[in-house]
Design a protein that fits this description.
This protein is an alpha+beta fold. It contains twelve helices and 21 strands. The protein has two domains: 213 residues, no CATH class; 143 residues, Glutaredoxin. Strands 1, 2, 5, 6, 8, 9, 10, 11, 12 and 13 form a ten-stranded mixed beta sheet that branches. A four-stranded mixed beta sheet has the order 19-18-20-21.
């Protein structure tokens, strides 16, 4: 798909998703850092396999990321020049941009290759990437914060560096060749949260006629509160608290919450039927994305992204559910596709099935025990209705006269007579 935009970063995001973008000559000289969570993004030499939390010069926490699609992309110059002139194109306009500052340090040895660290802060924290063994990328929302962490990692205090500005839109408008438009709010948060959310929302909205939006969940909100509280407790206690949260929430969910990317993506007006029903049972709920993983069939290896080629794809281990679904079917069984035991347990395929989009977005999740072909039922777009509230809202106030409440009458008690009459 041909893409035009007034924002360089939007073009870089679309480029990682396999689209063709029109760049100006001066844009190609600007550094590009895009973090993608899509199974359909182009190959990257810089996968993110671990994450952590940093407070000034002290590493509070670092753990591996389990089964993730997170990848860091630099702009591919070969792909940047393949825009097809004379063909239809989609316009993505940027509105209300937020500025970040970045430094790319080279020839600095470290032991954090493939890691991403967030910094502990009361405001939006800085993000530090370690793409290679001798490279460090620091991104912050202020130059003061950027230079502070530059001094921590650059012990030699080299002067050969350049501070570059990254402009991330907080709102975008997508206009397709038929002049249909969608206005989408991104967020106003950390670089890590905004860049991943921007990538996810562009991917879903470019190929779907429905409007897809992102929203935080309650579990993510509680984690944000706990992380903020770490600013007020001694650092020797913080690692213990973080590991407690990891065990309580689960390693798979906790890494997304700590990095600020644990949000749901859904059609505008969609009601989450399964969030509270399954949130303590499943790692993937409606609105989350399933990572890419390997499948085997007759000794031939496949990836999930190669098999989900329809608007709706059923991933299940139950043959009975398979009968009710008319779209693309991926059956996990001894005679069909097989996956390793860890992935099978992580997806809870023994008890649950998923309906996925082409990008791995979970449209629906349900128990295998349900034998009703409810997959084709259209989701209502009306919100929650409270009959009592409706009665209050429709109450006729025409004859109502506001007045202050009447105060109760105060009666003074009779005084006792402490003397006798003579």
């Amino acid at each position: 798909m041909n893409i035009k935009s007034n924002n360089t970063l939007i073009k870089d995001v679309c480029l990682t998703l396999g689209h063709l973008c029109k760049y100006d000559e001066n844009e190609l000289t600007v550094s590009s850092y895009v973090l993608s969570n899509s199974i359909n993004s182009v190959n990257s030499d810089y996968p993110i396999d671990s994450y952590g939390l940093l407070s000034k010069n002290k590493l509070l926490y670092k753990e591996p990321i389990i089964l993730s699609n997170l990848k860091l992309h630099f702009r591919n110059e070969n792909l940047a020049n393949k825009y097809l002139e004379g063909h239809e194109y989609t316009v993505i306009e940027s509105h209300n941009e937020k500025f970040f500052f970045s430094i790319h340090l080279e020839n600095i040895n470290h032991k954090y290759k493939g890691s991403v660290l967030k910094t502990l802060s009361l405001s939006n924290s800085s993000t530090i990437f370690f793409p290679a063994e001798n490279q460090i990328i620091i991104i912050a929302d202020s130059e003061k914060e950027l230079k502070k962490y530059k001094k921590i990692f650059d012990k030699n205090n080299s002067i050969n560096f350049e501070i570059k500005i990254i402009k991330i839109p907080t709102k975008i408008e997508i206009i397709d060749p038929q002049k249909n438009n969608k206005i989408i709010d991104i967020s106003d948060s950390s670089f890590l949260n905004m860049i991943v959310r921007l990538s996810d929302l562009i991917e879903e909205n470019l190929k779907n006629s429905d409007l897809y939006i992102a929203s935080d969940n309650q579990i993510s909100l509680m984690t944000k509160v706990n992380i903020l509280l770490l600013n007020f407790i001694p650092h020797f206690i913080a690692p213990t608290l973080l590991r407690f949260l990891q065990r309580h929430i689960g390693s798979f969910q906790f890494h997304k919450q700590l990095l600020g990317i644990n949000y749901f993506i859904s059609k505008d007006g969609f009601k989450y039927y399964d969030v509270f029903k399954y949130q303590n049972k499943l790692n993937y709920l409606t609105g989350s994305k399933i990572p890419d993983f390997k499948l085997l069939k007759k000794n031939k290896e496949y990836f999930l992204k190669d098999l989900i080629n329809s608007e709706k794809n059923l991933l299940t281990s139950d043959k009975d559910n398979n009968l009710f679904f008319s779209g693309n079917k991926i059956l996990i069984s001894d005679n069909d596709y097989s996956i390793n035991s860890h992935t099978y347990a992580l997806l809870n395929l023994q008890t649950h099935s998923y309906v996925l989009t082409y990008s791995g977005l979970v449209l629906e999740v349900f128990d295998n025990e349900l034998k009703d072909p409810f997959l084709d039922i259209e989701i209502e777009k009306t919100g929650y209705v409270d009959n009592k509230q409706l009665a209050i809202d429709t109450f006729n106030l025409k004859n109502f006269k506001p007045e202050l409440p009447k105060l109760p009458k105060f009666k003074a008690p009779k005084l006792f007579k402490f003397y006798r009459k003579a």
